[in-house]
Design goal:
Layout: E1 5-10, E2 14-22, E3 28-37, H1 40-47, H2 52-70, E4 80-83, H3 85-89, H4 93-104, E5 108-110, H5 113-128, E6 140-145, E7 150-156, E8 159-166, H6 170-178, H7 184-202, E9 214-217, H8 219-228, E10 230-233, E11 236-240, H9 241-251, H10 256-263, H11 267-284, E12 291-295, H12 299-307, H13 313-333, H14 338-359, H15 363-375, H16 387-396, H17 405-416, H18 428-431, H19 435-453, E13 465-470, E14 473-478, H20 485-502, E15 505-508
Parallel strand pairs: 1-4, 4-5, 6-9, 9-12, 14-15
Antiparallel strand pairs: 1-2, 2-3, 6-7, 7-8, 10-11, 11-12, 13-14
Helix pairs in contact: 2-4, 5-12, 6-11, 7-11, 8-9, 9-11, 10-11, 13-15, 14-15, 14-19, 15-17, 15-19, 16-17, 17-19, 19-20
Length: 509
């Protein structure tokens, strides 16, 4: 029997609880769920902080959920609690998190936008895996409108082309527009202009004008599907574009009270329903989509999936491929040398595999090495001089699908030190990182330096190499290449860190 998993999401408009299990045949069983509204987003997006009244309300809700979970035999320490856009932007989030922990025992993890995208991808992929094979081969837009942000994923022929967390949220937008005129036409114009600008932002990654597959995620999209769509399976709906447009236009004529009465939703959700559906509609109108797919899932499902061991090895490999695809598309966006990046990645993986018995790093580190290998020269877009510094800047300020903010910092630091005489440990910023992160950076940087040196000419001369450990030496055997002077010079320049970290001298034979 599967072990129940509990998730609590602290969102902009409410606190939501989900208790579920995924059985051995990968079916999702919802055991319990609850949602309690509160005005976190309205506080933060208006004043920048969480008010005293909202704090007390949140503590009361969390205490109730603690009692509810006790009925399932689930302790606060066993519960995954996440907070999204509104919470992470609150200036007083740290003391509020401390109050929640001291009062209830729940530890809150504040996730960033790219983590929301990751959880949404997991949830959507799991939900659609047997229903829409087009997701694996066709261009698609996956979109979720939230209270604090709109999460967008762009899929190009089934591979991740881009992931974005837009500052376009229903709760964020409502007070901004109400402070002007509150006029419906003004709101529509604002949303339309924003989506046009966003479409321009996406163009280097995916031309959404020709996309004919649109996946709308979220409770408001589900509400529309229930009212004007048709069920495809237990958890999936479809809506014809014309029906969706009519429904959205009709909703715009309803008052908040009418939305509460007709759709049996909370007052908080009714207040943002008009804007939410309008955002979906505007994005859909930038595509060729005629039928909208609505999976009845959310990031809470995604978090439960990520915490279970049920996802298959094939699924995990596919997810890692999406991360690599996202990094590669970022390099393409900045007109990087794709052939060199791929060659360095393959060399880095061979070195990593050779050291695997003693490297003492997990599979996730291998993935970060691959991403750093792909992006190490991305700074050439700005200038070849000191390009490693520019690489660090671009990576650190980019959204790479599937990487947490901490992992993004690790990758950007590895890219910074892939060349030059300076080493990571010379930096004060490096010294304040956790010891495990410091060792990870040192080991992966040392490997990347060697892998990069093996393609010093950017001509992929050493297309076939064999790597072996011999006593105190990492021996790299070339096949059929006689003139290796350039690569040997590069190894002599870049091998010092590797020898310092791993204790092996590098020779090219």
């Amino acid at each position: 029997m599967a072990t129940p998993e509990a998730v609590i999401e602290i969102g902009s408009t409410g606190v939501r609880l989900l208790v579920a299990e995924f059985t051995s045949d990968r079916k999702r069983n919802i055991l319990d769920r609850a949602e309690m509204p509160f005005s976190l987003g309205r506080d933060v997006f208006t004043t920048g902080s969480i008010s005293r009244e909202t704090q007390f309300q949140c503590l009361h809700i969390m205490q109730r959920y603690k009692e509810q979970l006790a009925g399932w035999g689930i302790e606060p320490s066993q519960t995954n609690v996440i907070a999204t856009a509104a919470f992470r932007e609150a200036t007083n989030k740290d003391p509020v998190m401390d109050k929640i922990f001291s009062s209830t025992g729940f530890r809150v993890k504040v996730i960033d936008g790219i983590e929301e995208n990751q959880l949404m991808y997991l949830a959507v992929t799991e939900c659609l895996q047997n229903e829409t094979p087009q997701l694996r081969s066709e261009d698609a837009v996956i979109l979720e409108v939230g209270g604090g942000s709109t999460e967008v994923m762009l899929m190009k022929k089934g591979k991740m082309a881009g992931a974005h967390s837009l500052h376009l949220g229903t709760v964020r937008l409502a007070p901004k527009m109400n402070s002007k005129t509150g006029n419906l036409e003004d709101i529509q114009r604002y949303v339309e202009e924003y989506t046009i600008n966003a479409k321009g932002l996406f163009e280097s990654e995916l031309n959404i004008s020709v996309v004919n597959q649109f996946i709308a995620v979220g409770s408001d999209a589900t509400l529309a599907a229930i009212n004007v769509g048709r069920p495809i399976s237990t958890w999936i709906w479809s809506i014809e574009r014309e029906d969706f447009d009519r429904f959205v236009d009709e909703i715009q004529q309803y008052s908040v009270d009418e939305c509460v009465a007709r759709f049996k939703i909370s007052y908080n959700d009714a207040q943002t329903l008009h804007i939410s559906l309008l955002i979906y509609k505007m994005f859909i109108h930038h595509t060729k989509v005629q039928t909208i797919i609505v999976p009845e899932t959310n990031i809470r499902d995604g978090l439960i999936i990520s915490k279970t061991k049920i996802p298959s090895e094939v699924f995990r490999d596919e997810f890692n491929e999406q991360i690599i695809a996202s990094a590669t598309n970022l390099l393409k966006k900045y007109h990087g040398d794709i052939e060199h990046a791929e060659h360095v990645r393959q060399n880095a993986l061979k070195i990593y595999q050779c050291l695997e018995g003693e490297i003492s790093l997990d599979e996730r580190s291998r993935l970060l090495l691959e991403v750093a290998s792909i992006l190490h020269d991305i700074g050439n877009f700005i200038s070849m001089s000191n390009h490693h510094l520019h690489s660090e800047y671009i990576i650190r300020h980019s959204e790479i699908f599937g990487l947490t903010r901490t992992e993004n910092i690790i990758v950007s630091t590895i890219a910074r030190y892939h060349r030059g005489k300076q080493q990571p440990q010379d930096s004060e910023q490096f010294q304040i990182l956790a010891r495990s992160d410091r060792m990870q950076i040192l080991k992966l940087t040392a490997i990347l330096r060697i892998a990069d040196a093996l393609d010093r000419s950017h001509g992929q001369t050493l297309s076939e190499i064999e790597i072996k450990l011999k006593n105190d030496t990492l021996a790299i055997y070339s096949k059929g290449i006689k003139n290796l002077a350039l690569e040997r010079i590069a190894l002599s320049e870049k091998g010092e860190l590797f020898e310092s970290v791993f204790g092996y001298k590098v020779i090219l034979i």
